[in-house]
Amino acid sequence: MPVQRTLLGQPLALRMPPRRFQLLVVFVVLFIATVYAFGAPSADSIPTYEQVKDAVKDPHLPELPALSDIKDHIPKLPTELPELPNLPVPDIFSPPAHKPPDQANSTASSSYGAIRWLADFKWHIGFSQKVTLDENRAVLPPLAIRPPIYTYYEPKSKQDKKATQAENRLILAWRRAWWAQGFKPIVLNHKDAMGPQYEMVQRMKLEPSAELEFFRWLAWAKQGGGILANWLTLPMAQFDNPMISFLRRGEFPKLSRVESLQNGIFFGESAAVDNAIQEAINNKLLQDVPANKDKIAKLALQDGGIVVNLLSADVAVDKKANGLAYYNTDVVNNKYKTVRDKLSNTTHVEGLELLADLINSHLHLVFQETHPDGIAIVKPLPEHTTALTYNAIEIGRNLTQCPSSPMPNSCPPNRQKCKPCNPNKPLPFNLVPTFKNSTKLYSIGVVPHPYTLTLLHYTREDIDENFLIEAERDLWLKALTKELLGPNHSELFRVLFFKEEVASLRKASHSLWLTAERTTQADLEWIFGFNLPQSASPNKEPSSPSKDSELIIFPRPSEPKGTEGVEAEEERWIRKEEERLEKAREVLSQSHKAKKEDTVRAKVKQVEDWNLFDTEAWRFARAFSARRRNERKDWEEQEKRYSGSERKAGVKTGGGRWSDRFK
Ligand SMILES: *[C@@H]1O[C@H](CO)[C@@H](O)[C@H](O)[C@H]1NC(C)=O
Ligand SMILES: *[C@@H]1O[C@H](CO)[C@@H](O)[C@H](O)[C@H]1NC(C)=O
Ligand SMILES: *[C@@H]1O[C@H](CO)[C@@H](O)[C@H](O)[C@H]1NC(C)=O
Ligand SMILES: *[C@@H]1O[C@H](CO)[C@@H](O)[C@H](O)[C@H]1NC(C)=O
Ligand SMILES: *[C@@H]1O[C@H](CO)[C@@H](O)[C@H](O)[C@H]1NC(C)=O
C-alpha cells in the first residue's frame, strides 16, 4: 500500500504531473540556466532575441523533445519574448518578497501616471524594480542633507509697502541662490530672536543698526548656530568652490567671519555663538550706553560689526574665502554707481529692483564663466529627434544670452577680474550627438521614453510586436554614451554611468536632464539659482525694455548649429516628428489609465521590456526631477509665511508655459 502523506492532518495527494508538463518544467529550468549563463537581468547582457531563439531551437539537450512538441505550451513565444528578461528570475522559487514600505513624500503625479521613488543608499543598481518590486518606482540616492543657512530680516517700521516687496524680492534671490548651492536658506525675524536677552538688549537703547546686529545674533543662537548670512551675501562661485563646499559640510571648529565681508557672514557652533553673545552683552560699555555712545558707534563701524567688536578677542577670520559676495552699502556705493544713484534718492524702490537685477546678472555671469565651453544640447540619434529638443534649446538659448543688467560690464564684488558677457562673442552653444565628460560644459539632455524614441527613430506611426523584435535595444543609452564609454561596455555599465551623471551631487551641477514627454519645465530658477533672461533685445544691439529703464537687455542667441555630419532635416519631416511626439505622449498617457489587459498598455509594456535599460534611465531621470520638484515645493509651503517667499515677493506661481504646473 502506498504511503499516505499528510499535511496538517489533511491527506496530501502527490501525483507526478503529466509528462508534457514535466518537459515544460525541464525546459523552463534549462532556459533560466541559459539566461543565467548569459548573465540574467543584473548582469551585463540580457539575452538577445537571437540567443533565445537559438536556445529554443537548439537547446543542446539530446533528450529534450523537438521544438514543435514544446511549442504548444509556450504560446506565441517570439512575441512574448520581450517580457522574459524582466522576470525577477531568482525569485521564482522563493517566496515573494515584501515591497519596501512607502517613504514620506515619495510620490508625484504626472500625466503619465504616478511617479514613485524609494531613497536608498543602494541606488547604484541596474534595475530599480529588483528592489522596489514595482515597475514604476525608481530607486534614487537619499536626498542630500541641506545644511541650513540663516539670514535675519525685519522690514523697517513705517516702510513703504513697495520697498518691503522689493526687499522681499532680493531675499527671494538670496534664497534661490543658496538653495541651488545645496543649502536650506531660512529667513529669521524678530520673533525668532525673542527671549530674556532680547529684552535686555532692547532696554539698552542702542542705535537701531547695532540693536539689529544683536537681534540677528540672538535669532541665530536660538537656531543652534551654523551659518548666519546677510541677505545681501550670496554664493558667487561654482558648486565645488572650496568655501561653499566647506560651508556645506556644516562643521565649524571655530566661530568665524570672512575677511573683507564685514558682518556679511558668520559660522560657528551653537556653544561658541552663545558664549560670544553672552560676552558681548556683558561688556562694560553696554552698562551705560548713552555715556559710551561714541565708543560703541566706533566699534560698530569696524569689520565684523558690533557684536564681534565687543568681544575681548576677534573671532577667527577666514582669509582665503573667495566664493562669497556681499552687496553692502559700501560695495554698492563704490562699485555700482547706476544702482547707487537710484538707491540714494526718492527712487529707492527702483534702486532695490536694479540691485536685484544686478545680483541676478552676476549669478548668471558666474554660471557662464564656470562653463566656458558653453552649453551642449545632447541629441543622441540626431537624424529624427529634433522635436525632442525644443525645451532644451529654449533653456540653452536663454542661458547663453548675456544677462540683463543695469551695468552689463560690471563684475561681482568677489571676482573683480571676471570677463563680462560679450554678445558678439556668445558662449558656445551646440548640439552634440553624445554626452561629453567635461565640467567646463553644461549639458542639457532630454530623456525619451523608449516608446517615444522608437516612433521617432524608426519614423513609425505605431509599433507592433513583429516590428519590435527587429528594433535595436536600448538605442538611446548606447548612443548617448557611445563616444565616452566606447563600444565595449554593457548596458548595465551605461545605465549606472547615466544615473551617476543625473544624481550625484557634484555632477548634477553640470547637467540638466528633462524628460521628453513633459511639456513644461518648472523650478529652473531654483536649479540654476538665478532667473533666466525673460526678454531680449529686438535687434542685434543691446537695448532697454523701456525708455526710462536703466536695465540693458541683450539679443537672444540664435538656435544652435546642427550636429556635425548630420544633414539638417527638412521642415516637413520635423512637422512629422512633432506629430509623432504628440502621438507618443497620447499613447503613454492612455496606457497608464488603461486596465492591465488593455492593448495600449500591453504595447507600451512590450516596448519597455524590449528596452529595459532605456526605460530604467527614463524612470530614473523622471523620478529624480519629480523629487527635486517636490522637495522644493514642500519647502516653499513651509516658508510661505516668511519674508522672501515667492508669495511675499509677489512672484506668480501657476499658469503659463514655464509655470509651476507639474503635469
Ligand atoms: C513631507 O511633506 C510635508 C508637507 O507636505 C512636510 O511637512 C514633511 O516634512 C515632509 N517630509 C519629509 C520627510 O520630507
Ligand atoms: C536725485 O534725483 C534727482 C533727479 O532724479 C537728481 O537731480 C539728484 O541729483 C538726485 N540726488 C542724488 C543724491 O543722487
Ligand atoms: C570624466 O572626467 C573625469 C575628470 O576629468 C575623470 O576622472 C573621469 O574618469 C571621466 N569619466 C569618464 C567616464 O571618462
Ligand atoms: C572592443 O572589442 C573589440 C572586439 O573584442 C576590440 O577589437 C576593440 O579593440 C575593443 N575596443 C575598445 C575600445 O576596447
Ligand atoms: C527665454 O526667453 C524668452 C524671451 O526671450 C522667454 O519668452 C522665455 O520664457 C524664456 N524661457 C525660459 C525657459 O526662461
From TrEMBL:
Q: Which key words are in the record?
A: Membrane, Transmembrane, Transmembrane helix
UniProt feature, compositional bias: Basic and acidic residues: 631-649
The biased composition feature labelled Polar residues covers 535-546
**Annotated stretches, region: Disordered:** 535-569, 628-663
TM spans (from-to)? 21-39
Highest taxon, organism lineage:
Eukaryota
PANTHER family associated with the record: YALI0E03476P
Can you name this protein?
A: Uncharacterized protein
Protein's organism: Karstenula rhodostoma CBS 690.94
